[in-house]
């Protein structure tokens, strides 16, 4: 009704709904949906190539050989719709058929030596007929021989290089490794145990983050030792491991500064992993914000034990390190040792010095509570200057019989 009203008011609009306009629309539509030249009907792309005779397969392989000079057919190769290939093969994934043992080989080649000879002249890759797992293990072995490990990048594809078997060329090795890690591809079924053994022999890494964290932790330890930083490790954000004596070659050019910044700011490697956070704090790598709570818990627990041993006075020498039991201690000593194992090696003296001089652990919303905890333990905020006397509790003062001290304290 509205359309008729508009046409009456504006006759010129009648041309907008005329037949020529509809023809133009039809013309644009036909151009949009017109199939490109040489594209075959859809049934060709869905046809099962196993229904085609051997002679047809030989023709398409000969065509591929004439164009590329070999039969190293990429795994994702689809026969294009061109006059160079037999029309019945257009749209077919060629390698998925000819390099499958139970399809092409068993049907057309197994009992025909003459056909095997024909394919051999074209350079048919008989190795490609073995299970894909075998080719994966072969490629992974070569990768390790070249790179020294099996930490394959996700986008790595086997190159067309003489170092690699032609049967493995263009194998998506990186994505296969990723699928094994994430989805456990190839590791289910009757062969799962043997395949896991094969991977273990090659040093396959299921958890890459663990390897990366170990490398980071090792770099931090070397940095601390080389730079002779006794307390908190401070790594410049732009520091890169130099190619110098003292550093292992596997760490050369490692961006330790950037990794350290990411660990502190983005919780790289340590998010949800308190065990890794403790490992870092034990070597003096202090985490910030919420992660520092783990370090404070260790400090305050060690401070409480020390305070109980010293009549509620917390005046810890700078060089005091939480001791473990003597090497020649008996079982009874280990059971009665007053210091928990997780605190052994904690540099309590240095940590408490940082509290005094730098306000370590005393920033943020928990500062008041932590100050109160220290005051309750008898923390000495301004110790007297001068040489301290030896005291019970230093490492050299711990004798096996001192293990019995634990009976006097409620740790």
What brief labels describe this structure?
0% strand, elongated, single chain, mainly alpha, 411 residues
Please outline the helices and strands.
Blueprint: H1 2-9, H2 19-33, H3 42-45, H4 54-68, H5 94-98, H6 101-109, H7 113-121, H8 132-147, H9 173-183, H10 192-201, H11 208-227, H12 256-266, H13 274-282, H14 292-309, H15 331-336, H16 348-358, H17 367-376
Model description:
With 411 residues, the protein is mainly alpha-helical. It is 45% helix and 0% strand. It has 17 helices and no strands. The chain is elongated and about 100 Å long.
Mean pLDDT: 80
Share in helix = 40-55%
Count of DSSP strands: 0
Strand content: under 5%
Structural class: mainly alpha
Give the end-to-end Cα distance, rounded to a whole number of Å.
91 Å
- Tally of contiguous helical segments: 17
Strand and helix order: HHHHHHHHHHHHHHHHH
């Amino acid at each position: 009704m509205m359309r008729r009203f508009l046409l009456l008011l504006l006759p010129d609009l009648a041309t907008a709904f005329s037949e020529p306009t509809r023809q133009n629309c039809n013309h644009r539509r036909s151009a949009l949906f017109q199939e490109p030249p040489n594209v075959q009907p859809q049934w060709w792309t869905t046809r099962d190539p196993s229904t085609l005779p051997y002679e047809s397969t030989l023709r398409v392989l000969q065509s591929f050989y004439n164009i590329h000079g070999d039969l190293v057919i990429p795994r994702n190769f689809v026969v294009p719709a061109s006059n160079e290939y037999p029309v019945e093969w257009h749209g077919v994934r060629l390698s998925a058929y000819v390099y499958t043992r139970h399809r092409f080989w068993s049907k057309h080649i197994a009992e025909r030596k003459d056909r095997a000879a024909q394919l051999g002249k074209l350079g048919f890759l008989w190795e490609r007929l073995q299970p894909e797992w075998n080719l994966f293990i072969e490629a992974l072995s070569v990768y390790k021989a070249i790179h020294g490990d099996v930490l394959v990048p996700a986008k790595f594809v086997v190159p067309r290089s003489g170092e690699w078997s032609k049967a493995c060329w263009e194998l998506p090795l990186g994505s296969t490794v990723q699928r094994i890690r994430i989805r456990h591809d190839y590791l289910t079924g009757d062969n799962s145990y043997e395949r896991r053994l094969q991977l273990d022999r090659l040093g396959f890494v299921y958890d890459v983050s663990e390897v990366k964290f170990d490398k980071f932790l090792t770099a931090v330890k070397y940095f601390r030792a080389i730079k002779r930083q006794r307390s908190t490790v401070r790594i410049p954000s732009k520091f890169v491991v130099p190619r110098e004596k003292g550093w292992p070659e596997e760490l050369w050019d490692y961006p330790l500064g950037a990794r350290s910044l990411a660990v502190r700011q983005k919780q790289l490697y340590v998010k949800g992993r308190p065990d890794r956070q403790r490992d870092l704090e034990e070597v003096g790598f202090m985490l910030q914000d919420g992660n520092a709570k783990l370090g404070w818990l260790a400090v305050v627990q060690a401070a409480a034990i020390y305070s109980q041993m010293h009549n509620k006075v917390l005046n810890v020498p700078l060089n005091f390190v939480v001791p473990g039991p003597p090497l020649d201690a008996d079982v009874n000593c280990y059971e009665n040792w007053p210091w928990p194992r997780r605190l052994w090696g904690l540099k309590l003296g240095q940590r408490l010095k940082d509290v005094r001089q730098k306000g370590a652990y005393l920033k943020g919303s928990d500062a008041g509570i932590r100050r109160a905890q220290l005051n309750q333990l008898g923390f000495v905020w301004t110790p007297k200057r001068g040489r301290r006397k030896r005291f019970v509790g230093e490492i050299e003062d711990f004798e096996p019989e001192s293990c019995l001290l634990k009976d006097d304290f409620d740790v």
